[in-house]
Amino acid sequence: MVRSILAVLAGWASVGVLVVLTDGVLNRLFPNDYVSGKLPPDHLLAVSLATAILYSVIGGWVTARIAAIKPWRHVLGLIIWGELMGIASAAATWGKIQSWYQIGLLLLWAPAVILGGWIRAGKPRFGPLDLA
Q: 118 near 75, Cβ under 8 Å?
């Protein structure tokens, strides 16, 4: 049970750490574009979205790697957790950042995490009422 929780949290944390580090780099590279009260330009948000999706693949891989058994169940847990956090984040920041960015994160999170899980665990084998 503890390993299951750690697998999901490790996947989530790996995405979070990479996103925060990338945002810090972008902020240092483009300080005039990240000003309080001003929306960042679309091209930088596109870079941020692309890297967040790449990091989501990594998060899915990390979760499947750490999961002792049934990696797809853990990947599904990461997807659900990420979508819940994404919805909460979008609700809290709606209007403060471009909506296409928030919607893109919500729509692309699950496929990216699934890809990471697939890279690590291979094709899912579903049994009756159970995720392999």
A: no
